[in-house]
Design brief:
- This is Phosphohexomutase.
- The structure is a single chain.
- The chain is mainly beta and 320 residues long.
- The protein folds into 2 domains: 222 residues, Jelly Rolls (Sandwich); 77 residues, Jelly Rolls (Sandwich), CATH 2.60.120.
- It is built from 7 helices and 20 strands.
- The strands form 5 sheets. Strands 1-2-5-12-7-10-14 form a 7-stranded antiparallel beta sheet, with no helix packed on it. Strands 15, 16, 17, 18, 19 and 20 form a 6-stranded antiparallel beta sheet that branches. Strands 9-8-11 form a 3-stranded antiparallel beta sheet, with no helix packed on it.
- β17 and β18 form a beta hairpin.
- It starts with 10 loop residues before the first strand and ends with a strand.
- The mean pLDDT is 97.
């Protein structure tokens, strides 16, 4: 196989809080007016990404990893995770507030669900005026206070309400109570997991009049009741990989591209590029590939030398 940059068919998710911005902001061909998520790269059971272009078109991400584990994942990633693709990449459109929720850590997720935990980061791509997120507690709390606040519907008074703007980044370790607020388009990078404990859903109902399931008791052991610092500051030096997040699960850099840069990789990890503004090209020894805002591309680890060119803002993600 000649390795090349891989793109995948987006997996669209209907959500009670979803809207149409994945079409109007990211130009995606969404099938309804309530699409909340576009899963760009996934091996979650039942939602496995399928290659959309080139020689491997129609093959699933799992298929190509099984064929070429070292070449796709990278030698270090394959040694650590085996055939597992350890990350999940999404774009989200929050027309309404998402539920207030929390994700378990690796140990709890393994014990309860045989899954990874869900450490994640958000890059705010677009924000309506006065949009905000909810992240963590205002002051150190405890399980008793949390339960009492749910009973008297005062949970929001315990939680941090943070106004956001385009370009803001938030890093959420497992256990952080959180919610994406209405009016936001977000690029999300996370561990491969779909385990979410919903604490509160603003008492809303779906089109059939039903409320969504809550997981109040399951969340008790998962929540970090201490205050946390989630916002990440980062530099924006042009044509450089500016460090944003560096954690055991992924490294994310921000590249303000204006011109051309050369990229060299070690072959130890795959690299993913998410185009969050503008247009750019990837040039390999074989060919050129063009990308636009809202595109996500997986660079197999075997592609260890290439060029980026154009005028764009790009998130660069790999495992170090």
């Amino acid at each position: 196989m000649k390795f090349y940059p891989l793109q995948f068919n987006p997996i669209f998710k209907e959500r009670i809080w979803g809207g149409e911005k994945l079409k109007t902001v990211l130009n995606k061909a969404i099938p309804s007016k309530t699409i909340g998520e576009s899963w760009e790269l996934s091996t979650v059971k039942g939602d496995v990404s399928v290659v959309s272009h080139g020689e491997s078109i129609g093959k699933s991400l799992i298929d190509i990893i099984n064929e070429f584990p070292n070449e796709i994942l990278g030698t270090a990633v394959y040694t650590r995770f085996g055939m597992e693709f350890p990350l999940l990449f999404k774009y989200l459109d929050a027309r309404e507030d998402l539920s207030i929720q929390v994700h378990p850590d690796d140990a709890l997720a393994k014990k309860r669900h045989n899954s990874f935990g869900k450490t994640e980061m958000w890059y705010i791509m677009q924000a309506d005026t006065d949009s905000r997120i909810i992240v963590g507690f205002k002051e150190n709390s405890n399980a008793e206070q949390y339960l009492e606040s749910l009973n008297n519907k005062s949970l929001l008074s315990l939680l941090n309400d943070v106004k956001v703007k385009s370009g803001d980044v938030f890093f959420l370790e497992t256990g952080t109570v959180h919610a994406i607020g209405a009016g936001l388009v977000v690029a999300e990078i996370q561990q491969t997991s779909d385990i979410t404990y919903r604490l509160y859903d603003f008492d809303r109902v779906d089109v059939t009049g039903n409320t969504r399931e809550l997981h109040v008791d399951l969340a008790l052991e998962a929540i970090n009741y201490n205050t946390v610092e989630t916002k990440k500051e980062y530099t924006t030096n042009v044509n450089e990989s500016n460090a944003v997040v560096d954690c055991p699960y992924f490294t994310t850099n921000f590249i303000p591209l204006d011109g051309k840069i050369s990229i060299s990789k070690s072959g130890e990890s795959f690299t993913v590029y998410m185009c969050i503004e503008g247009n750019f090209e990837i040039t390999t020894s074989e060919s050129k590939f063009q990308y636009k805002k809202g595109d996500t591309v997986l660079m197999p680890a075997a592609l260890n030398s290439f060029h980026l060119s154009g005028k764009a803002s790009i998130l660069e993600i790999y495992i170090s």
